Predict the structure.
Amino acid sequence: MARATTYRICPRSGLQFERHAERLMIANAVTAVVFLLLGGILAVGIVLTRWPAVHWLEAHRFYQVLTAHGLDMLVF
């Protein structure tokens, strides 16, 4: 037996959204914001290490953070 799909109409744009697709869109948006925040935190670690007055991370940890930041910003 086929299951009936439920749609919601956006009050602002008037577009029609299917419920399951809307949940997926919200999950993707939240994931994007979380990984962007993580990339920003990693970037702050890189900047604080490159700043001679602070020099926050050791050499091996700096390259781990640099790689993690690059992968985070490139892939996610």
